[in-house]
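Tokens as discussed.
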């Protein structure tokens, strides 16, 4: 969705758009490419809608709140994708999303109070969470030569012609850059669980950082790929 797209739609039109995306996802089998594309579009619209609520925002320090909120948001998006068939059309999609977000934020806070943010999801869940965004990379690489895709991406990640990948650093671990994570994932073919475990952070925190930076860097990927 382009910058300012929501403002071009009335509230009712935007609600109908989300409803159509939900119905489109429900029409296709789980794990099918058609459902994944519909879910990716749905998640993208949700994230850019400016309609996401921020529960308990005034109760936490800003930096800590951002980490807690982003983890809760990742859990919410995962739950939406996994339970899309159970969505009750009597409620607006964003009402459902914000209801889940409020509950997942409470869960994250409770986990944090008990043991810190240490939960690591199962591998199949982490792929849904992260690859809803990482699938956007497919749009950057020419499809006519599939054999060169990996090589093109590897050279771009290693060269980083404008040094933008090196400048995006993980909070509380500034030695880790977006470039490091991308190389580990796409060149070394390591799982997010392995990468997160080596860094001593949760997969949710890792994915939250990577997803946010990837959205920011997409024009850079498209420029060179």
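Sequence:
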């Amino acid at each position: 969705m382009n910058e300012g797209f929501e403002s071009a739609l009335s509230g009712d039109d935007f609600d109908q758009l989300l409803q159509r995306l939900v119905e489109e996802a429900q029409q296709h089998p789980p794990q099918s490419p058609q459902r994944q594309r519909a879910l990716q579009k749905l998640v993208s619209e949700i994230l850019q809608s400016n309609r996401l609520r921020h529960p308990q925002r005034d109760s936490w320090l800003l930096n800590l709140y951002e980490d807690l909120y982003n983890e809760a948001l990742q859990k919410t998006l995962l739950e939406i994708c996994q339970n899309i068939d159970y969505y009750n059309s009597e409620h607006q999609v964003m009402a459902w999303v914000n209801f889940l977000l409020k509950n997942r934020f409470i869960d994250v806070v409770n986990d944090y109070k008990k043991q810190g943010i240490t939960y690591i999801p199962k591998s199949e869940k982490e792929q849904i969470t992260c690859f809803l965004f990482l699938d956007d990379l497919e749009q950057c690489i020419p499809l006519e030569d599939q054999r060169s895709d990996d090589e093109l991406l590897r050279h771009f990640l290693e060269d980083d012609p404008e040094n933008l990948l090196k400048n995006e650093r993980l909070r509380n671990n500034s030695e880790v850059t977006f470039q490091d994570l991308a190389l580990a994932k796409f060149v070394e073919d390591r799982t997010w669980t392995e990468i997160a475990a080596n860094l001593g952070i949760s997969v949710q925190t890792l994915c939250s950082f990577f997803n946010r930076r990837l959205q920011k860097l997409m024009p850079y990927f498209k420029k060179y790929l």
